[in-house]
Task: structure prediction
Amino acid sequence: MSYSSRGNRSSRSSRSSRQRQTSRNKRAPKSSTPQSRRGTLQRPDTGYSLRSRRVRRDYSDNPFSVLMRPRVLLFVIIVIVVIVVMVVGVTSCIRRSNESTHQTIEDTKPMNEQDQRVALGVSASMTSRFTEALDEGEALAKIAANADQYDDDRMLELALAEPSSRAFVADYPSSDKSSRPYEDEVTRGKIPTLFNWDDHWGAVTYGDGPLAVTGSGPTTLAMSYMGLTGKTDYTPTQIAQQANKNNYASGDSGSKGELFSKLASSLGLITEEISPSADTLSYSLGDNTCIAVELKAGTLTNSAHWALLVAINNDESVTVYDPSSTEVSGRSWALSTIASASTSAYAISASESALADSSRTSSSDDSSYEDEGGSSYDEGGYYTDE
Result:
């Protein structure tokens, strides 16, 4: 039994020793002797093999650096864009809803039928005044926005000085620069108030510009003709055309005195040049006589022009119809003031016999006539080239 035990122990020890040796051999690096093949040396085998590994960035040091990862950054951008789109969409819906609600309220709110820009309950006369002022304001804004389209700065000055001219001046750049028929009625013995910028004739060329800024002479003569005859066949348009052809459209005031001393007679009017003194003006002015006066610059207005004295009042003041100024036309003036401001004057009247014997007819007749100089005009007073 003892020998058997020792034999088994020796056997197990020997077997264990071989196993340990085998294990060491497995762990030991293999050595190889370099061999030369065709002059090429091989590196000795060290027993280690190199493997490629992906290098990963470590974001653990900075928590915010996670956001810099491409996928995370793209996701964040997409989320922000979606949020912005949603906010814009919601805001637009709210705004449209508010506008719709406001419009509904405005539609159901009682309005001033005369002019919706004016509050309900305002009197008709006051509404009319607001309407006029609002229209003039809108026209002035249009003029200012298109001021570079005016070749004549006098048109811009007119708009600034005369609120009632602004609608005409605003439309002037796009107009065809022609006139249109005058359809208002006039009464014989009552002088109508006319202004140069009336859209019936304001765009017509007279002298060196539009009649709106140069036509005080033709407009003054037209007022006297209409009031003394009761006819409307000679408006500033026709008179301006005749004055242009006869070279009367010149001078500081825009028209020569011949416009009244010569052209007026071809219209069936009687004219007489008089002294522009206060006594002479007072004596000459009467029910069937009006007086055209040439006013100096810097007196009643800034520029020289023509105006019409239409009546003398009980206080010896005179009523002036100034075709270039609503302010001058809207009040009475002392005779001394008019006399000191005038450089020349023409008394204008029309006799019954002169009107009865006149070969000219009103615009309703289909005929033409020839003036003293041999110029031909149609029934509307326009020149006909023959």
